Structure prediction request, 326 residues.
Amino acid sequence: MKATAIAPANIAFIKYWGKRDEKLRIPANTSISMNLSAAFTSTTVEFSKNLSRHHIELVDEMFSDKEISRIVLHLDRIRDRAGIAQFAKVITKNTFPKGTGIASSASGFAALTVAASAAAGLSLSEKELTILARLGSGSACRSIPNGFVEWTTGEESDDSYACSLYPPEYWDLRDILCIVETKTKEVSSATGMEFAQTSPLWETRQNEIPERIAQLKQALREKNFQLFGEIIEEDCLSMYKVMNTQVSPLFYWTKTTEDCIKEVQANRASGTLAYFTIDAGPNVHIICEGNSEKKVVDRVKRILGVQSVLINKPSVGAHLIKEHLF
Ligand code: PMV
Prediction:
């Protein structure tokens, strides 16, 4: 009853910010993302009759009490589904700092879902795994399928799931992830987005999204990088405006975040096509094609305040592996 899974973080190109159903984590809108090869979580879960409570550990970092409760709730959801009463030992490890807007909850809950359901003896389809992962953390459902992924909103739990649009090798894109802050943010995305609907810009954003999704899908289909880049920046800024105008407003960016954005614009002015997108945090994802990687990385490393740079390619989704963490 022991299993280990690896799951990637993902970067949203069309963002999820706001829910239709809080409890079931059904998003207000469909979103599209790409899995990241260098930002991932490995998790080993073992259910055992020798445990009298769940034991949960994050290597090199600490989970807050709130994070622990969310993990316990997810483990209990999986135990109920499998009909087992045993408690679990969970050891988990990230390749990047958690809680800084690099979708650690996405990779974390995707890895936990895949490892815990296998350890509990469940045999679930990819669609079922995405639905289960969504209940732990919305964006986690997009870290289950491979490559470029769409998570459809839905009326009910069973029709809000994620599936792959294209495999990782479909388009040689890079996500040059500029880490400008490693401290856990004060307001998590789960809490922050509970107030999304209070923004006067909420309706506008929701009305614009279907057209943006259609254009992003066209850009993906045609591998039209300029159109793709323009849409992802537009959607990132649209989400950010909602965050900044909701009650209470959220301000995740720092001066270095803005310097990275200016650098992306300078890249474009000098003929290197690159575009930015940012989730709920200060760290900047610079998206470019593979042949621009070196130029973009060399320039961004020179920005004061960029602590490290993670170079991501499109990646496979969550999967089980044979080696365990304990
Ligand atoms: O699933 P959560 O609670 O981590 O929310 C993710 C929200 C954003 O990262 C800001 C956008 C997205 O679609 O990933």
